[in-house]
# Entry
Amino acid sequence: MSMLDWWMQVLGIIIVVGPFLLLVGLGIPPLLSVKLSERAVSRSVQFVTSVGLLAGLGLLGLMLSTGKRHVPIVLAHWVDIPDYHMLLKIEFDRLSVPFVILTFLLCGTISAFSAKYMHREGGFNRFHMLYALFLTGMIVTSVSGTIETLFAGWEMVGLSSALLVAFYQERPAPMRNGLHVWVVYRVSDAALLLASIWLHHLRGHGNFDAFLGATPWPDGKTILSSWDALFVGVLLLAAAIGKSALVPTSGWLPRAMEGPTPSSAVFYGALSVHLGAFLLLRVSPLLDQSLLLSVLVVVVGLTTAIFAALFTRVQTDIKCALSFASLTQVGLIVAEIGLGFRYLALIHILGHGCVRTLQFVRAPTLLLDHRRLEDALGTRLGSQYAPPPEEAADSFRSRFYRWAMERGYLDAFLVERCVRPILAIFVFCDSLERRWTDWLSGTRSRRTEYLQRHTGTADDLP
Amino acid sequence: MTELHFPWLDALVLMPLIAAVLVGQLHDAFVARKWAIVASGITLLLAICAWQDFGIMDRSQADDAWHLSTMLFGRELFAMDRLSAPLLPLTALLYFLTALTTQRTKIRRFSFGLMLLSEGLVLGTFASLDPWMIIGLTIAGTVPPLLELLGRKRSVRVYLTYQSVFILCLFFGWMFAAAEGNVKVHTLWAIVPLLLAVLIRSGMAPVHGWLTDLFGNATLGTALLTAAPLPGMYLAVRLLLPIAPDWILQSMGLVSLFTAVYAAGMSLVQREARRFFCYLFLSHSAMVLVGLEMVTPIGVTGALCLWLSVGLSLGGLGLVIRAVEARCGRVHLDDYLGLYEHMPLVAVCFFLMAIGSVGFPGTLGFVGAELLIDGAVEAYPSIGAAVIVAATLNGIAIMRAYFLIFTGKRHSTTVNLNMLMRERIAILTLVVLILGGGIWPQPGVLLRHQAARELLERTGHPAALTTPAYSHAHGEGHQADPDAMPNRDAPPQ
# Structure
């Protein structure tokens, strides 16, 4: 191994280990009931993101100078038994390196912003702990060299996202929205897990090289048959739909705005919302293998872009409007991936992520910015907002407006037609079980459910 | 058979039984708790020593040194193999932590004497390889919960009905199997009752009513200890797997698969934390049974890994719910309680245990779940999909329960509700095991794989023997242990 190779390995390991150590460093003190100061927390997050960013830039420089397009690093044989093998492998290529740099850049910026924004906020440390979990998940997903590693990072991002939506936990609304986000994520995770297991089943391990070809991204050629590629690709597309809020799951995106502005900015403006597109880019050789899959990706992307553009026009608060504007771009990016413009999609992600993060973090001072802009221009600015139709007789416009306000009734459809019927079945089964045990025991078998609840404070308990 | 260096097994079974007699005579509940902690702590140490001693010897089976039981009863009562070796410290740990975390508010309702009696019986079951011994101890193990229900003046009809059927099926099933002797295929008179007994003891739907009833009416500690060590799985492995034909195993797999999904769905609509926990537990134990039914090296390895993960994660989750109940009474899930502010550490531990149980990456359950699903996809792809559905529903259920118990409103109190030092030590021990096992899973998985391979070797199932990797491992110098018992055709004792 040459000295440059050695340095590339070291930088690669720093990129992955830094966020993990941050997660451990912020995660263990609460378990030991040790409270870290705000300064210590902020400094450690900024230190890790700075080191990671420098390592990412250094790695990029080395890769450019040596002309290497692919740097795989096997960290460990996580599970190695005769019938099963699970590698902890990371790889750096033209896709993962820009994503790593973007992640560290935006997470570092937002951590500096949140040090002020969240100052003396209850849950400051909890926010940063979840933020570290998100950062670890993003980095692991970006550099994963196996589908299992990608799944691990994917889950971390999902968990941190749902918990940050439910960050303000003394109100029920954020909890309901957090649970909604979590449900969508879990369903999409299930699709990814099934794809992961299926690939593992086909190839005996989940190494990307084994089924996406050893040629560096984006020139890999999959060895899967077109039907296998279609099956796995549809599952991965389902995972991407959930994670990137593509149609029909777009309804969770405005709900996610319940969280603190810094997390909204970095999650739904920049990084997390692009993770679905990243996944499609990573497995893009599968799209080349199946025309039908590519068509599906384009249809989903364009539908999302059109729907989100319409929804944006009727939003009445800035964070929701920005989130749908962001979704419009994500839809376009997905369509670009389906059409085969891989580099364009990557550049689109990088540019869009940076711009949208800036817009999100300026959102709380929108009115002030607006006034300053008008003062500078010396005139009123026109409104981008589409007001509700004034004439009641214009029923088509009214219905269309209502349709956009209700986000295409997609949320209502999923909740009323998919979730509630399933829950109703289990509620019915529960009532049957209750009747059975009541009959068998000859009395009320669930007596505690009939007891009067204690509604006062714990001080009033006897 | 190879001998351990000390009569660990006799000691770890006798210690809680003797302590049960002594502690049962104490009238002061605080003194009883103190001695119960000491006795279960010593039992835990003995179990760890037995496990380590067995691990150092690296043999497939071993029995006690000095042969005390041979002197007394004419034969060795207890022995351990690779399957049961980690189950002994796991079970002892759960009992010890339960005793350690019993709060002052619950101390008069929870019988430490019965807990120690139950511990002795469960450990005795796991330390037995002889079928009649296993049957006898398992039947005896149904008594402590019954005594508690009677002591609490609760209806015992549900419990008695199910347990009576269980005992009859277990006893007569194995009696027929033993009478039929050395045959390749046993009659339905032997197999069907045994299958029913295993399904009842494991709480598989639709014969799970006794377990939900027990969680509702017994103390949470007793219900948890009755369920968490998964003695039903042990019955399946020791009694059913060696003699059951493929179609019976497939039937068992279908029932357990249905239970995994059904119980996961039911956990979503429960209005009490105890019942939520019970269904969550049922779903996971059903997944373990699904893995065992697959009789492939990967599937069984996944099931055995998940067994340990379920014991630790759900055992820990049960203890956390018990800690909340000790402070706030029964925990209802039809409204937000908002307890996070007053018990942040309890909330964090609840969350870690919960995500550990559903196999979140970095926890002990992750690799087990991956292996299990991979084994399922290998055997039948539809089973893999159903297991994933169950895991997804479980994941949603735990988040719902977390939000309802710890968030959603501001809970007012001036009383300190946070964990005591004893509870903190107990729960953090489990957290360390769950995260440690998740971050560095290789040693545990390797040991479980060896246990799975031996299990399949003994049952002589063709899937195990024809797997290429398995054959490869044998071809490259795998030495068959002289203590291994390839006894699929051997007569039941």
